[in-house]
Design goal:
single chain, about 200 residues, Glutaredoxin, 2 domains, 4-stranded mixed sheet, 7 helices, 4 strands
């Protein structure tokens, strides 16, 4: 088993943090996004979308998409439960994970891919207007998270979950994407200060 990744990319980091929270070690193989290694024939056979991460199992099966990989490990190692417990708990984690992935991480990624000069050879065409349009989308999602965190230690309650992982990674990636965090979101800043100092955040 090995995890194919590009360490600078946000999605592989989500998996690394998840594994660190579980106490699971998986060998990794670094692929250079900027050198076009994700477009190689060998990698394309594993993931036709040419994105990382990809988990290659011992029998050669390739699992793609960060959350699918995390769910695989959740089934193998159910504790600590990072996808929630019980019908309601799991649904709440899924709801917020989905909101954060689509409303925050995807918006930050779009800003990065369409505005950062280094991405010009890879994001064809770069549409600057679309990149700019995604900045306020990300900022609005942060305001929603601030409201949610007013009565919760973590995003879905008292227990750290994959939703927190996705939000942390997205917020850290905002610096690279040059998306400003709105001021005055005290609940969000309190939460960010806590989750960003967890040992897994260094994964």
């Amino acid at each position: 088993m090995k995890l194919l990744e590009t360490r600078m990319a946000p999605n592989p980091r989500r998996v690394r943090i998840f594994l660190a929270e579980k106490g699971i070690q998986v060998p990794t193989e670094e692929l250079d996004l900027m050198k076009g290694e994700l477009k190689s024939d060998n990698f394309t056979k594993l993931n036709k979308l040419q994105r990382v991460p990809v988990l290659v199992l011992d029998d050669g099966t390739a699992l793609c998409e960060s959350i699918a990989i995390c769910r695989y490990f959740e089934e193998l190692h159910p504790e600590p439960a990072l996808f929630g417990k019980g019908a309601l708990g799991k649904a709440q984690v899924e709801m917020w994970q989905r909101r954060i992935e689509l409303g925050l991480l995807a918006s930050v990624a779009s800003a990065f891919r369409h505005l950062h000069p280094a991405m010009a050879p890879l994001e064809v065409p770069q549409v600057a207007a679309w990149g700019e349009a995604n900045k306020p989308k990300a900022q609005e999602m942060l305001k929603l998270l601030d409201e949610q965190l007013a009565g919760n230690r973590y995003i879905t309650g008292d227990t750290y979950s994959v939703a927190d992982i996705t939000a942390l990674v997205a917020m850290d990636f905002m610096r690279v994407a040059r998306v400003q965090r709105p001021e005055g979101l005290a609940n969000l800043e309190r939460w960010y200060g806590e989750v960003s100092t967890r040992p897994s955040a260094k994964a």
